[in-house]
Write the structure tokens for this entry.
Amino acid sequence: MKRFNVETTVGIFMVIGFICFAWMSVRLGDVNLFANDTYTVEARFDSISGLKVGAVVEISGVQVGKVESIRLDQEYYQAVIVMEIEEGVALQEDSIASVRTSGIIGDKFIKISPGGMDDLIEAGGEIEETESSISLEELVSKYIFEKE
């Protein structure tokens, strides 16, 4: 009888351990099993240096989505970013999307500055106004070589 209690207790701890391991794997892997409803919005940039799929999309410092995909428009040679935005977040047609750097490490993210229009961007729509990524190398070389 005592051996049965020890085996049951060990079994319960093993099951709890596996559940904790699975939960940590899902959280660290950034997998949303119970995903929130989202809609997609596109934006075109001349330069997105360092931006990666999965990067954060923020409004006023609050995460409202993430970068779903990045592709090159071969006709205009622009980067086309597809962003997943949370369903409850409404974007005005004159919103501005810009590529920004966070922290010292330099992770890139998309910052959306809300507009003032009453018209909203619908699912699958496009943010017309964008600001490309600032290249530190270009700024330094411009400052050095144009200063005479």
